[in-house]
Amino acid sequence: MLELSALDKKKQIILVKAEDKETLSRTFVRFQEHYESPCKQIRGKIFTLGMLKRAYSNQNGAWTYVSNDVIDGDWSGFNFPSPTLDPFKDGLFDPLTQEEQALVEAFRHRSGPYYVIGVYGDGALTIDHEIAHALYSVNPKYRKEVDAILDGLALGQVFKILKKMGYCKEVFHDETHAYCGVDGMYFEEKWVKENKEAKKIVREIGPKLRELFERHKP
Ligand SMILES: [Zn+2]
Known about the structure:
The chain is an alpha+beta fold. It is built from ten helices and four strands, in the order ββααβααβαααααα. The protein is globular.
């Protein structure tokens, strides 16, 4: 079962909670990749799950996106802005899976803009990261303050790391703010490692972004 709830007063940040990682990743995979796949034949395009599996497998070595009983999937949290749902509502992705259909119907009559985030279990690991993306999208004041912190910095080394992690350049700014501001320790230990230039940036902007996030968090 999926549990849906609005997190903020304006009901613009909608949390979708699944009981496990497999259900979550199966539900979000095509929405997420339509929004921000690094593969140009997928991002913004209409595609079957088979086409996505081929593109992702070729790019990453195997189909490890969606968790199952045996394989731990690559992604633990998901997020996309409301216009992502339009081609799904219009029937361009039919046939939809049962999970996709449920999500599309839940938002069919909703007007935008709003932002959908997905976590599983208690969500403790990823929820703040996904809320940061949502705030960056629906809260112009927050976005402006984030951009003011990032503007003028040489972020090339951080972007290089994000590319390696599987992100497309369209979300580099957004991901830089989410990883540095909310997941700074994890980002540094797991991904930044010995990259001195990137480490310096993470330590410089991390606390400022964290403070900003705490101030705006619903
Ligand atoms: Zn992210």
